[in-house]
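yo

u said u wanted the structure for the complex thing, so here. seqs first:
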Amino acid sequence: MTLHTRSVAELAAGLAHKEFSAVELAEHFLARIDAANGALNAFVTVTAERALAQARRADAARAAGRAGPLTGVPIAHKDLFCTDGVRTSCGSRMLDNFVAPYDATVVERLDAAGTVSLGKTNMDEFAMGSSNETSYYGPVRNPWDPRCVPGGSSGGSAAAVAARLAPAATGTDTGGSIRQPAALVGVSGIKPTYGRVSRYGLVAFASSLDQAGVLAPAAADCALLLAAMAGFDPRDSTSVDRPVPDYVAELGAPLRGVRIGVLEEFLGPGLEAATGALVTAAIAELGRQGAEVVAVSCPNLPLSVPTYYVVAPAECSSNLSRFDGVRFGHRCREPRDLTDLYTRSRGEGFGPEVKRRIMTGTYVLSAGYFDAYYLKAQKVRTLISDDFKRAFGRVDLLVGPTSPTPAFAIGAKVDDPITMYLNDIYTIGANLAGLPAMSVPCGFVGQLPVGLQLIAPHFGESRLLAAAHAYQLATDFHRRLPAAYA
Amino acid sequence: MSLTRSDVEAIARLARLEITAAELPVYADSLSKILSFVEQLNSAQTASTEPMAHPLAGELQRLRPDAVTETDQREKFQRNAPLVVAGLYVVPKVIE
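structre next:
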């Protein structure tokens, strides 16, 4: 049975037509995880028994005529979403022993929609990284080439979907952590508008940038899942109280007449030539389908990486101050006094990249440096956001590459933080401005996938998904599987 | 911007992070690189620009009614605690 080659939408249809049961489907994917996870390290926790119990409930709901569009569809959760009764490690030694006492709203909603959770996926520690190499549980491998990274920080979710160990997986995106790994493993991934999906129950990294989303083979799959995830949540004070459009029904909107802006700043010298050629070809395809393609400039966008590396560490240093070794998380052995308890618990519990970011944030927020770094970065954030506003006065969508290169070798960039940070040069802008954005597969350099990024105005998810869907009706890159996992 | 070992020690102390002597020069080097990198922000003209703290400027953060919405789950929450005695979180002696 080649169930795993089907998209989420196709699996949902198969379940609806009783071609197979939810239990059979869960067993199929659990067997794939069992066979492949040793090589890929995509999952840190597999919840087989829970998954089978959920699958039995899904089958019972269907038999009783209570099935929804996602009832019985297996998914995986990035290990940053709190899952009641299941370890939620966030890729860190600090939370290696943490069993979440409640469900994140996203988890609760997807459970209520009848999805079957297979387990928790590996990630960069506290979502800080672009390669999945900062995880306490070791690097995730790219299913297309095990010598390469899958991107990060949602690298486990991305690799799991690419190798079809799960039909879809949740992720979070603070500076590109859904889109960049989606691009590097050849799947589709959407970061919704800030406030569109509840952050309640996500382990916080940078609260003004974090947003939950989803990775799946096709844009149509993302639409199905986002429909279940999105919506107002009183438990997240930044959740936006607006109706959620019918993303699935609106997938069919044509590209004809849609104005698409090609971001000049994204096609400059930092972009690898072969990647750039594929992105240019993908944009031409959008044009062939009737989109009106024009060049657009956002002159302050090149400052998005330095802006981010002030704002995000500042917020991270505040958020991660909660890890004190007292109420939960790692505690050092035999603390001499309270200060020793704090410093050693944190020193032992956090890995090097997390410490580096906490210290960067502590520095830029400290007396005497606040104005020069943090306030300045917040002002540049306004400039970048205004650039996007002006651009969206002229066009409906912006396009460009997701990442400057395809996947790089494990170990290639770990020694130089700046080189690693520049991986996110094309993705960070959308986070700073709170815009919805997605990555869809648009070709291969050698055997490694490349992603096309689309960015929409606030709450423009429908148009984003419809444009990506139109592109995927004309291309098959999103249907290709790595030979080892076909 | 170049940070010394003692700068890093001071930052680590503020952040309550134990950093070993061997790690100090490594962090001094990488933090200096990061601070030099972000200095390009100075090229932007921001004299009349408002700082941005929230991506959806028009959306006001709500206040919730001051009502009890959570039930007591102390025992469940304390299952994650490193050390609990008689329902209390235990830390080393704070006051001599």
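Chain A is about 40% helix and 10% strand. Chain A has a mean pLDDT of 97.
cya
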